[in-house]
């Protein structure tokens, strides 16, 4: 790693989402979202909802980690670590309980006022994702969610309320979390049900188009309300390698990456590329695209690119290849050069440097690493601090390669936020045992526990990383004890 430093204004911090942390699912006038009826993430979402009543099934996000009531304690812990920024999201149904109302819910707006004020009290910049894996259930039931063009207006109305209300409190925004996941898991990403669809891809890519138009209109509106806003897109970055040096494997790998660049190309460049148009033709997908849509896409390009990066995969053109691994909504061939997490996610710190170079070479826009972290089973003993050296090892290697991308390769990286800076409900599995946090939350998969917060070993490590602006990546020298 280079001995050069990151810029002094580098945004160090952590990231969570509203639906995985807040709880209080039916408080403060909040309506029901798709996340409120999820019991097990992508591994078999169970929808038990009849006549407006949620049945007696455990829904992990109903209380989650109770961030809604405990945020002052949590923000104080983030400040103790030295956070420069904190990424969270807005629960759409806290602001518009059904999603299509004309007037917002003041109680929901006031909650986020309090949250952002608490951040700013410590000098922590809020980084806000407007839509993060939750859609008002009413809009799903009445309109079919993002398969309906009306969703654009509903979303832009939400954005206008947020931009005007928090124009002096929030500078950094992202329009949709991991927008490319709409084609990988449309239920979690956008509340789209494709089970009975004759042409599922038609539904997914039409919904994606409406989301991208909504994003572009939001960007234009945000710039009118406050020209100092920085509004970005956000994608799951799907780094993959060709299994061999055969041209066939490399062509297949290019095609796999193109499925994701499809989204960033449109949001950064403002139009569908010739390759994207040919892709849609091959898949017999005919999109509803108006002249106004095209104008909006071109005028509403983003200011920066947010990415989640956890792992890499391997691609082969040979359909007989059977060595498969899954992770982060993706699956591919196992890489014999990499270790895996307990959930089969292949650990590839150097891949983050490669990913950052690929993106910056393609777009020359600032990149914000807004999700990176290790899901693991943390062993908690009474009276002792969690010794999560495995998480420190994972994060330190990724941060080191990110710094190399900046100081050796010239990539413009504006910030880094550890995913799940505090333990929360896993989006992909609905579990608490899959922990990412630097702060331990006493909660299990059955919803039992005190919800008490305790610092892990990684808490003290990350505090030194931030204080040194990335220069100190070794583990803390002094031995820490439990709370």
The total domain count is: 1
CATH superfamily, called what?
Glycosidases
Strand order of the largest sheet: 1-4-5-6-7-9-15-16
β-strand amount: 15-25%
Rounded average pLDDT: 93
Query: Which CATH architecture?
Result: Alpha-Beta Barrel
Q: Residue share in helices?
A: 25-40%
Which sheet architecture does the biggest sheet show? Answer: 8 strands, parallel, barrel
Span between N and C termini? 34 Å
Could you say which overall geometry the principal axes of the C-alpha atoms support?
Answer: globular
Q: Which CATH top level class fits? A: Alpha Beta
Low-confidence stretches: 41-49, 477-483
Helix segment tally = 14
Radius of gyration: 21 Å
**CATH fold type:** TIM Barrel
The total beta strand count reads 18
Q: How does the helix and strand content classify structurally?
A: alpha/beta
Description:
A hairpin with a 2-residue loop joins strand 2 (49-50) and strand 3. The relative contact order is 0.14. The chain starts with 10 loop residues before the first strand and ends in a 16-residue tail after the last helix. It contains 14 helices and 18 strands. By secondary structure, it is of the alpha/beta class. It has one domain: TIM Barrel (Alpha-Beta Barrel), CATH 3.20.20. One of its GO terms (biological process) is carbohydrate catabolic process. InterPro entries: GH, GH_1_N_CS, Glyco_hydro_1, Glyco_hydro_1_AS. It comes from Paenibacillus apis.
């Amino acid at each position: 790693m280079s001995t050069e430093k990151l810029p002094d204004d580098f945004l160090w911090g952590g990231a969570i989402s509203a639906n995985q942390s807040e709880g209080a699912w039916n408080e403060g006038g909040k309506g029901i979202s798709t996340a409120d009826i999820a019991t097990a993430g992508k591994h078999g979402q169970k929808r038990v909802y009849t006549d407006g009543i949620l049945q007696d099934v455990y829904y992990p996000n109903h209380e989650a980690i109770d961030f809604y009531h405990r945020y002052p304690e949590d923000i104080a812990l983030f400040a103790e670590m030295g956070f420069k920024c904190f990424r969270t999201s807005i629960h759409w149904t806290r602001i518009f309980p059904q999603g299509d109302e004309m007037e917002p819910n003041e109680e929901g707006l006031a909650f986020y006022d309090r949250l952002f004020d608490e951040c700013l009290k410590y000098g922590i910049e809020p980084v806000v994702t407007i839509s993060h894996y939750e859609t008002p259930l009413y809009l799903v039931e009445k309109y079919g969610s993002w398969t309906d063009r009306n969703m654009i207006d509903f979303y832009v109305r939400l954005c206008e309320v947020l931009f005007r209300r928090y124009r002096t409190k929030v500078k950094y925004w992202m329009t949709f979390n991991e927008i490319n996941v709409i084609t990988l898991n449309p239920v979690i990403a956008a509340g789209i049900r494709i089970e009975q669809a004759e042409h599922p891809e038609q539904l997914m890519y039409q919904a994606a188009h409406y989301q991208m138009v909504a994003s572009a209109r939001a960007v234009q509106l945000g710039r009118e309300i406050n020209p100092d806003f920085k509004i970005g897109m956000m994608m799951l970055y799907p780094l993959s390698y060709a299994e061999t040096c055969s041209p066939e494997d490399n062509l297949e790998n290019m095609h796999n990456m193109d499925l994701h660049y499809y989204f960033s190309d449109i949001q950064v460049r403002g139009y569908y590329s010739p390759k994207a148009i040919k892709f849609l033709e091959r898949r017999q997908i005919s999109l509803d695209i108006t002249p106004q849509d095209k104008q909006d896409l071109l005028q509403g390009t983003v200011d920066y690119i947010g990415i989640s990066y956890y792992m890499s995969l391997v691609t082969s053109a040979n359909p007989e290849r059977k060595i498969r691994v899954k992770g982060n909504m993706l699956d591919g061939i196992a890489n014999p050069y990499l270790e895996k997490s307990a959930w089969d996610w292949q650990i590839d710190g150097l891949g983050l440097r490669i990913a950052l170079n690929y993106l910056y070479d393609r777009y020359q826009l600032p990149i914000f690493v807004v999700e990176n972290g290790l899901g693991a089973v943390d062993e908690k003993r009474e009276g002792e601090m969690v010794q999560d050296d495995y998480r420190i090892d994972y994060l330190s290697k990724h941060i080191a390669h990110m710094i190399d991308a900046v100081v050796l390769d010239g990539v413009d990286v504006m910030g880094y936020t550890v995913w799940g800076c505090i333990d929360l409900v896993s989006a992909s599995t609905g579990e608490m045992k899959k922990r990412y946090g630097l702060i331990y939350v006493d909660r299990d998969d059955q919803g039992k526990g005190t919800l008490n917060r305790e610092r892990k070993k990684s808490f003290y490590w990350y505090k030194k990383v931030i204080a040194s602006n990335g220069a100190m990546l070794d583990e803390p020298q002094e031995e820490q004890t439990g709370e």
